[in-house]
Amino acid sequence: MSVESAGPGLGPLCPEHGQALSWFCCSERRPVCAACAGLGGRCRGHRIRRAEERAEELRNKIVDQCERLQFHSASIAKYVAEVLPGKNQRAASTASAARELVIQRLAVVRSLCESEEQRLLEQVHGEEERAHQSILTQRVHWTEALQKLDTIRTSLVGMLTHLDDLQLIQKEQEIFERTEEAEGILDPQESHKLNFNEKCIRSPRLTQLWVTAVLGSLSGTEDVRIDERTVSPFLQLSDDRRTLTFNAKKSKACADAPERFDHWPNALAATSFQAGLHTWMVNVQNSCAYKVGVALGQLPRKGSGSDSRLGHNTFSWVFSRYDQEFRFSHDGQHEPLGLLRCPTQLGVLLDLQAQELLFYEPASGTVLHTHHVPFSGPLFPVFAVADQTISIIR
Predict the structure, then answer these.
(1) How many Å apart are CA 168 and CA 170, to the nearest integer?
(2) 146-199 tens-digit pLDDT
(3) Where does the record place the B30.2/SPRY domain (predicted)?
(4) CB under 8 Å to 77, separation ≥6 — which residues?
(5) Sheet-wide strand order for 289-296
(6) b/e map of 216-238 (b: 16 or more CB within 10 Å)?
(7) Chain Cα centroid distance, residue 203
C-alpha cells in the first residue's frame, strides 16, 4: 500500500529514517514512520494504520473497561453494604435461637447433663464465631477487591487523561495487564460458610435425655381422635374414633365427601397443632403395614397418585412399617430405619418451637427417628393401615 507522511509531529523519531512515528504496524505491534511503512520500508506488505486511529481504539477500550469496572464496583459495594450485614444479623439471630433451645432442654435434665450443656454451648459459640469470622473475612476480601478495582480504574483513567497517542500505545501492555487483573476479580457468590449451621446443636445424647425427661414430666398424651369425614372407605372407624381397621373391600356405606381419602387407606385426626409441644401414642402391635405421622391440612384426598399417598409428597411426614421393613418417608424420600425389634407401641413427639418431629418407643423411651424441618402450617396427626388394626392410646 502507498503510505504518505502524516506530517510533522512531536515525540520520538524513527531511529532509521528520522521521521515522525505517525503510523502503527499491526504486524509488529509498534509505531513506525512513513518510510518504514512505504514500499521500500521494513514494514512493506504489513497491515498499517495511522497512529491516532490505534490510539483512539485504545481510548474506546479504556472507556468500556472503566464502565465495566464501575458496574462491578457498584455490585460489590451493594454486597458489602446490604448482604453481609444481613448475613451477620441472621447468624446472630439463629445462634441466639439455638442457644435458647439448648438451655431450655438442658434445664429439664440439668442434673444429668451439665457437661453436655457446656459442650453444646461451646459448639454454638464456636459456630457463631466461625460464621462471624467468615463474614469478617469476606468483608476484608471484598473491601480489598474494591480498593484494587478503584486503583486500577484510577490508573486507567489517568492514562486516558494524561497520555498522548504514542505514550498510550507504549502503555498497551500495562493496559492489558491491568484489565486482565480487574477481570480476575469475580463477583461475590452465595456461600453456606456465611450462615450459622444449626446442626451444631444436634446431639443424640441430648435428644434421648430430653425425650425421657419430657415424657416423664407430661401429665398425659394428647386426646387425639380421628376425623370420621376423612376416613378412607377401606377403613372402619371405631365408635370412640381411636381405632382404624383395614378392610380390603371398599365400603359402600361411606358417603363421598371433599375431606375423605377415596383410594389410599388414610385418615386424619380431628385436631391440628400449630404451636407448643405435643405427644400421642399408637398401638401398632397387631399390624404389619401401617403409617403414623403428621400432615398439613392441604394434603390432597382424592386419587391413587403420590400427592395423596402418605410420605410421597411435600404435605406429609410418616414413620411406616411394611412387614419387617421400617422407614421414615417424606416427599418420596424414604430413609430406612434399622430397628432391632418391632415396636408394639409407637409414640410421636412434635416440638413446634424447635420444628422437630420425633418417633419413639414408649416402653423404653428410645428415640427411633428424629426429623428437623420448618413446617409451613398447622399439622394434623395422620394414620394409614393396610393390615388389621391400629389404635390411638389414651
Answers:
(1) 5
(2) 999 999 899 989 988 898 888 888 888 988 888 888 888 888 888 888 888 888
(3) 203-394
(4) 146
(5) 266-268, 379-385, 289-296, 316-322, 325-330, 333-336
(6) eeeeebbebbbbeebbbbbbbbe
(7) 22
- As a whole number of angstroms, the distance between CA 343 and CA 319 comes to 12
Q: Once rounded to an integer, what is the mean pLDDT over residues 256-260?
A: 87
Closest CA to 245 of 76, 383, 101, 78: 383
Q: What is the pLDDT of residues 361-373, one digit of tens each?
A: 988 888 999 998 8
Q: Catalogue the long-range contacts made by 326-333 (C-beta closer than 8 Å, 24 or more residues apart).
A: 326/368, 328/359, 328/369, 328/371, 329/291, 330/371, 330/373, 332/306
What's the distance, Cα to Cα, between the start and end of the chain in Å? Answer: 103
| pLDDT the model gives residue 5 | 45
d(CA 253, CA 94): 52
* Radius of gyration of the chain from its Cα atoms, rounded to whole angstroms: 37
Phi, psi of 126 (to 5 degrees): -65, -40
Strands 235-237, 289-296: pairing is unpaired
Measured distance CA(173)–CA(170) in Å, rounded: 8
What does the pLDDT average to over 73-92? 92
What is the structure's pLDDT at 76?
Answer: 93
Task: Assign residue 168 a region (left: φ > 0; alpha: ψ between -120 and 50; beta: otherwise).
Answer: alpha
Cell numbers describing residue 42:
521494513
Q: Which amino acid is at 31?
A: P
Does the global pTM surpass 0.85?
no
Q: Which residues have a Cβ under 8 Å from the Cβ of 183 and sit 6 or more positions away?
A: none
CB–CB of 146/81 below 8 Å? no
Give the integer Cα–Cα distance in Å for 135 and 88: 7
